[in-house]
Amino acid sequence: MRRGVKRATAGLALLLAAGTPWAQDFPVQPPGGDDSPPPPIGLALPEDFLAPPSDLVTPLAILDRLVVPGTRMQLEWRPGGGISAAEIPSPVVVTRGALSGPVLCLVAGVHGDEINGVEIVRRLSHGIDPTRLSGTVIGVPIVNVHGYSRGTRYLPDRRDLNRYFPGSRSGSIASRIANAFFQDIVSHCDMLVDFHTGSFERSNLPQVRADLTRPEVLEFSRHFGNTVVLHSPGNKGMLRVAATAVGVPAVTFEAGAPARLEPEEIAQAVAAIERLMVQTSMREDPAAAEGAGMPLDPEVIARRPDPAPIFLDSRWVRANSGGLLISEVTLGQRVQSGQRLGRVIDPVANVERYILAPVAGRVIGMALNQAVLPGYAAFHLGTETSEQQAVQEAADPDTVVEDDPDPEERPDAPDPTAGEDYE
């Protein structure tokens, strides 16, 4: 019996030593040879298991939901604590790209009557192809549903929501809404654009307002194509100021007038944001590819000059008399020093007084025809400057910021004749 076992063992050893061809994955070659054949296709090598994974895109957790890569989902945002239980929720459209990239937040309707921004964000949010997007776009077309449903700028208590960010949990209704929005939405953003229009019967040329003293904001402002860029440090409580303070570069995008939809201004703003996404590598540049669906070619992009932003200094021209304002220029028009911008007619005395341009420049904002008081800011003129000069002048701000983030008393009604930057 033992002899039989020994014979069987010896036979097995001979078979293993001989190495039958059908028992091998591929021919064994002596080590050290350069002419070794490659392993069969599909065979995993040890280094394949050790290699770091490529840009892995995971689902985005937001508003108690998971948005998987390559999809778009419309969610609902409502401040907690029953703040707006009687109101419709704010829509939040989340487009999670199939490829990795930054999170861009597009926000509008902080002032309920500024509906150009509502359409801009709606159009962009639903027009992005998530399967071709690198990163994520979070679009909130209506933040202040209270004001939007009533066609007014303010919250029901006449507070301006854009003076209360980042807010607090125990302050006024404005501060609580601001805090909830900051925690639920802004905390997910890598960059933010807040859309507004002119206020108090004024209209603005599409323009970016940014604090150019902040390097990250300055860099961000360069990506909107040939869009006007104005230095504006902003006021404490503004969404863009609060977002920038916590490391999220943010700007205000002004376009048009309140309480109306203006197709031309809307189209310009949409084009600027599409350009922003190209510049930040979130989407392909159609002009850089010879055919649809072709990936970006860095060499092609390097050879093609990008449209540069237009940096402007600005000043407001005021009416020196009261009466009926009739403009004689249009938004975007270039004017010469001494040129007539409009006239104010006293209907009682039947006297006309002209408003003249003190400097040559471009009309980037103007009051709509209406009855005005002496000192009313009527025309906003921009004078072109270099980026370097704009930054130098921005480094010496002359604005004073209040320390109280959430005043207990309801703020006084804003005086349209006292200032012009009503973001």
From TrEMBL:
Cofactor: Zn(2+)
Signal peptide: 1-23
Keyword field contains Transmembrane: no
One Pfam family this sequence matches: AstE_AspA_cat
Acidic residues: compositionally biased ranges: 395-407
Region (Disordered): 385-423
Succinylglutamate desuccinylase/Aspartoacylase catalytic domain segment(s): 101-277
Entry keyword annotation includes Signal: yes
Keyword terms, alphabetized: Hydrolase, Metal-binding, Signal, Zinc
Protein known as: Deacylase
Organism for this UniProt entry: Arenimonas soli
